[in-house]
Every structure is written in structure tokens, then in C-alpha cells.
Write a structure and sequence with these properties.
Blueprint: H1 27-38, H2 43-65, H3 67-76, H4 80-129, H5 132-137, H6 140-182, H7 184-190, H8 193-231, H9 233-238, H10 242-294, H11 300-341, E1 363-371, E2 377-386, E3 391-395, H12 402-408, E4 417-422, E5 425-426, H13 432-437, E6 439-443, H14 453-458, H15 466-475, H16 479-483, H17 502-516, E7 520-524, H18 532-546, E8 550-554, E9 566-571, E10 574-579, H19 581-587, H20 590-600
Parallel strand pairs: 3-8, 3-9, 6-7, 7-8
Antiparallel strand pairs: 1-2, 1-4, 4-5, 9-10
Length: 601
């Protein structure tokens, strides 16, 4: 996740499980929403496709009907006019069918691909606007699964499931109409297979829905496992855990394969069962037609036309059985996608929020409390002030609440009690955009995108010119090493900046903060991941960045904050002691012990 400064929970994050299969009462709501959200925006294209489908159904039935005059008028009556008219009618009908089929296919392909794109954009927008608490509770693998798999299943459900259902159902009805027109008694005999086929589709559809839900849940789990193992490959090799990780991933792959194969077997059984039902119905129709033919109640042409219509009707009926499976898979995907889209962020602009312009940058915490959703308290009434243009440091044992404190300032979370204000304005009265424009964050994790160095620095202020980017790099003491690279500022840094050293990555992040030129600077253990030599070099750069800015620093290495204007020692969600470095050393309290331990190391 591209998130700086995780909240200190002291707990492992769990992967949210996939939403459960909807109940019978919930299904109509899910179906209605799916149709409204996916179908309504494309109404014009769908109407055009629907008209073309009607033409396809009508011309398919017409081709079956034309067998009657083709046999009776041409071969039996030997009508010379029919010899030309019937083939011409077949050609014209087939041409209309082909054109209509092409138009509806193109329209539905566009709708399907548009649904995939729209769903992916909605999911990404929801992720970008989501609270960090939700992001931390859901694994990136589940999000990737939703992007790559669920969105496509939604598309299939609409473009093939719903629309194919209408097309094939219309074709079946048209062909059944031909059958009843030719001989209604024979049609009654042949139709006995339809309800049996419908029952088979219903039962198989239920099984498909269950297997699809389980398969997609396991797909999310597998994506999560792969993401973690790819990111942690260095650690895996260092500890020789390749075989163990292979076993873990193999187990997930095998579980997913099991779910998929159950779905495959269900789908594979649907068509042959319906074929057997259709064959029985055709056999019954032939038997009954043979009895009628002996009494001259049915002509050979009429019988041929009837059988052709019946055989042609079973083809779209077979498609309906597979389309039902597609629909059930899409319905299961819709439940998962809607569950994500329905998560509303709790950190939002207040109705009366206003744009703020920070001039001085005084930062004040007044009896601030914060608790997680499960009731665990991280902050228990923290109060302190960071005077405008001054540097204040937060130090203390891990898990004391330091990162939680800093994450409340840009409103990654909102406090559950107390207030935070900037220049006297409570931050919840400011718009999120204007609040976050007033601050720059440099975290322990040097977050870089797989883009050029110039783009990564420029991320701090969209629209910045190349001269401004280079000036920021100079201020961060990064210009020289960047200029020495083969492509300079146009060098692509690789995934997470893998092509650069830790110190180089951090300098680029500092250059980004320089370019941001915000009055408030938040440093969340910005040098703790570096070696001592790199840290000393970066500290000099940071002092230049901190000059004239209101700065709140979280420090792991206490030697880096001895010059802070004030140091607050945070322990157990409270401020245990405060003062300058010399004052805290003189007190001989927790800070003095921590500093002595650091010096001994």
C-alpha cells in the first residue's frame, strides 16, 4: 500500500473475508442494483442491440419456416416461381440476420468493456477516498482480485448473461412459434423438454453461484499471498523459507483449483443433461409425427420445418443454460464489488468546511483521544503545542502512540475526543484538500513510484516546472547524484525505487517535500531506516527543510532531535514528560534512560 506512517496498533492486520453469498431476499436488491448501475448508463446502445437481437431471433425463425415451402413448393409441387423466390428469401433473411448479429455483437462488446472500465474506476476512486483504517483492514490482494476478476465477471453477467438471455429467449420463443404454427399438437409433445431443461438450469445455477463465490474468495487470498511473497522475497531467501512458502501458495492454488473444477463440472454437466432432454423430446416428436404422417395429417415439408425449428430452438436453449451460469457468477461478483463500493469514508469534509490558508502554522493538540473500532485506546488525552516555525519532537517506546499522533494532523484518522487546531482553526472545519496542502510528510518508508526521478519529485506539487524540480533537488542535496545518472532526472527508479540506494530514495522524498513548500512539516522517523553515515548526511538536508517551518518530528534515534525546541516523551498514549534535551536529561526520567541506552548502543 502506498501509505506513509501506519498507525501503531500493536496488532496484526487481518484479511477481510469475502462477502457471503446473498440470501434469497437479498438477491432481487443485488440484481436491481446491478441492472441499474451497469445497464441504465448504456440504455441507447442496449436498445439498439435489443432491436438487432429481435431481428436475429425473427430471421432465425424465418429460416426454419422457409424449409416448408422449400420442400413442398420446390420438390413436391415443383413450382418454378418458388425455385427462385425461396432461395432469394433465404439469402435476404440470412443477410439481415448477419448484419443484425454483427451490430448487436459490437454494441454489446463495447458495453461489456465499458462496464469493466467503469467498475475498475469506481473501485479505484473508492480506494483513493477510503479511510486508512479500512485500507489497513483489507488486503491489497482482495482489491487486485476485485479489479482484475470481479469487474470482468460483472461485464460477462451483463453483456452475455442479461443480453444473451434476452436474445436466446426471444429466439426460442420465435422458433417455438414456428413449431406451433406448423403443428400445435406436435409442438405440445416437443415442449415437454422445456420445463425439465429450465429446472436443470435453476439447480445448476445455484451450484455455480456457490462455487464462484468460493473461487473468487480464494482468488483474493491467493493474490494477497502472492503480493506479500513477491514483496518479501528477499526475506524469504535470507531465512531459507522457499519450500515453506511454496507449500503455502500451493495449498491456496489447490483450493482455488478445487473450487474452479467444481464449477467446471457443474457447467459441463448442464449442456449434456439438456442435450439428453432435447434428444428425448425430439424422439417423441418424431414418433408422434410418424403416426400423423401415416394418416396424411402432416406434410413432409411441414415436418421438416417443424424439426428444423425444434433443433434450432434447443441450440439457444443450451446457450441459456450456460448463460445462467455466467449470470450467477456475475451476481456473486456484484455482491463483492458492491460491498466495497458501499464502504463510506468517515473522514470527510464537514458541511460547513472552508478552505484555509495557513500563514503561521501553529499546531495545537488539546486533550486529544483516539481509540480503534474495537475500543483499544491509542491516545488518552494528549495536549501540546508546536509554536509557529519551531521544531517539536515526539519520542518514546514503540506502540506509545507517536505515529497515531502524527497521522491525526492530516486527518488520516479523526480523534475520538479533543481537538486539533492550526492557527486557532479546528482542522475538521477545514476542507481536507486545503488542510493537506498546508503540510508535507516525509516518512520512514521512502515511497516512490515506478516513474522518472523528476516525476517523483514533482509529485509534491503538480504542475511544477523542471527548474523548480531541479531547485528542490539541489536543496535536498540530491542534484549531484541525480545528474550523475545516465538519464539524469529522466531516470526511471523502478518499483518502489529499487534502482536507488536507501539514502538516495530518501533524498528524493525530501526534495519532494522541499517542492511542496508547505508551512507545516511532518517527519515520521524519516531517517530510522538508514545507516549512520547516510543518516548524518540526510539530517543536514532535513535541517535545511525544517528551517522556518512548523515541524513535528517522530524520532527513533534520539541523537537526531537533541536540538529540537521541545521534546515530548509519549508513553502508553500519554505525554510522560516534556522539555528540551538538556532539561529532560537533568530530570533523569524516561527520556534520560532512553538516551543512555541509545548512547550505549
Amino acid at each position: 500500500m502506498l501509505v506513509s506512517g501506519a498507525v501503531e496498533t500493536g496488532r496484526e492486520l487481518t484479511t477481510t473475508s469475502a462477502p457471503a453469498t446473498p440470501t434469497a431476499a437479498q438477491k432481487p436488491t443485488v440484481i436491481r442494483r446491478l441492472l441499474l448501475s451497469a445497464v441504465r448508463p448504456h440504455a441507447r446502445r442496449l436498445v439498439l442491440a435489443g432491436i438487432m437481437m429481435a431481428f436475429v431471433a425473427a430471421t432465425t425463425a424465418a429460416l426454419a419456416y422457409l424449409l416448408d415451402p422449400a420442400i413442398d413448393d420446390i420438390f413436391v409441387a415443383k413450382d418454378p416461381e418458388a425455385l427462385w423466390m425461396v432461395p432469394l428469401a433465404v439469402i435476404v433473411t440470412a443477410l439481415i440476420k448477419s448484419v443484425a448479429d454483427y451490430i448487436q455483437s459490437v454494441q454489446m462488446s463495447y458495453v461489456g468493456q465499458r462496464i469493466v472500465a467503469d467498475t475498475q474506476l469506481q473501485l479505484f476512486d473508492r480506494f483513493m477516498r477510503a479511510d486508512l483504517a479500512w485500507i489497513h483492514d483489507i488486503h491489497s490482494g482482495r482489491l487486485i482480485s476485485a479489479f482484475l476478476y470481479d469487474a470482468n465477471l460483472l461485464s460477462e453477467a451483463v453483456s452475455k448473461g442479461v443480453v444473451g438471455l434476452l436474445r436466446d429467449a426471444a429466439t426460442v420463443l420465435m422458433l417455438v412459434g414456428v413449431m406451433y404454427y406448423q403443428n400445435w399438437q406436435l409442438a405440445m409433445v416437443a415442449s415437454i423438454g422445456f420445463p425439465v431443461a429450465a429446472l436443470v438450469m435453476r439447480r445448476m445455477g445455484r451450484k455455480t453461484h456457490k462455487t464462484s463465490t468460493r473461487a473468487q474468495a480464494e482468488t483474493g487470498t491467493l493474490a494477497s499471498l502472492l503480493t506479500e511473497r513477491f514483496d518479501g522475497n528477499r526475506l524469504i531467501k535470507a531465512y531459507g523459507r522457499e519450500e515453506d512458502e511454496l507449500a503455502t501458495v500451493t495449498a491456496s492454488v489447490e483450493r482455488r483449483l478445487g473450487h474452479l473444477m467444481r464449477g467446471v463440472r457443474t457447467k459441463a454437466a448442464t449442456v449434456p443433461i439438456n442435450d439428453a432432454v432435447g434428444a428425448a423430446a425430439i424422439a417423441a416428436a418424431i414418433l408422434y409425427a410418424g403416426l400423423q404422417a401415416q394418416t396424411a395429417e402432416l406434410s413432409f415439408g411441414g415436418f421438416t420445418s417443424f424439426i428444423a425449428a425444434m433443433i434450432m430452438a434447443y441450440q439457444p436453449l443450451r446457450s441459456l443454460s450456460t448463460l445462467n451460469n455466467t449470470w450467477q457468477e456475475g451476481l456473486a461478483a456484484a455482491v463483492r464489488v458492491f460491498a466495497m463500493l458501499d464502504v463510506e469514508p468517515r473522514v470527510t469534509d464537514a458541511p460547513d468546511a472552508e478552505e484555509i490558508t495557513v500563514s503561521r502554522g501553529e499546531l495545537r493538540f488539546d486533550d486529544v483521544k483516539f481509540a480503534y473500532g474495537d475500543g483499544t485506546e491509542a491516545l488518552k488525552g494528549v495536549s501540546f503545542t508546536v509554536p509557529a516555525g519551531k521544531t517539536v519532537a515526539l519520542v518514546g517506546p514503540s506502540g506509545g502512540g507517536k505515529s497515531t499522533t502524527i497521522n491525526l494532523i492530516p486527518r488520516f484518522y479523526d480523534p475520538t475526543g479533543g481537538t486539533i487546531s492550526i492557527d486557532g482553526t479546528e482542522i475538521r472545519r477545514a476542507t481536507l484538500a486545503s488542510l493537506r496542502r498546508a503540510m508535507a510528510l516525509v516518512a520512514q518508508e521512502a515511497t516512490l513510484f515506478d516513474d522518472t526521478i523528476a516525476a517523483n519529485i514533482g509529485y509534491g506539487r503538480p504542475g511544477a516546472g523542471r527548474d523548480e524540480i531541479e531547485a528542490a533537488a539541489r536543496a535536498a542535496a540530491a542534484y549531484d547524484f541525480i545528474a550523475a545518472l545516465p538519464k539524469g532526472f529522466d531516470t526511471v527508479v523502478g518499483e518502489s525505487g529499487v534502482k536507488l540506494s536507501g539514502g538516495q530514495r530518501q533524498r528524493i522524498c525530501i526534495a519532494r517535500a522541499f517542492l511542496r513548500d508547505a508551512p507545516i512539516l511532518l517527519l515520521d522517523e524519516a531517517t530510522s531506516a538508514l545507516d549512520t553515515e547516510s543518516e548524518r548526511a540526510i539530517q543536514a538536508t532535513l535541517r535545511g527543510l525544517m528551517k522556518g517551518r512548523t515541524t513535528l518530528v517522530i524520532a527513533h534515534r534520539l541523537s537526531t532531535i537533541v536540538d529540537a525546541d521541545c521534546i515530548h516523551v509519549v508513553e502508553g498514549g500519554r505525554i510522560a514528560e516534556s522539555g528540551t534535551h538538556d532539561e529532560l536529561i537533568a530530570k533523569g526520567g524516561l527520556y534520560a534512560r532512553l538516551y543512555a541506552q541509545a548512547e550505549a548502543e
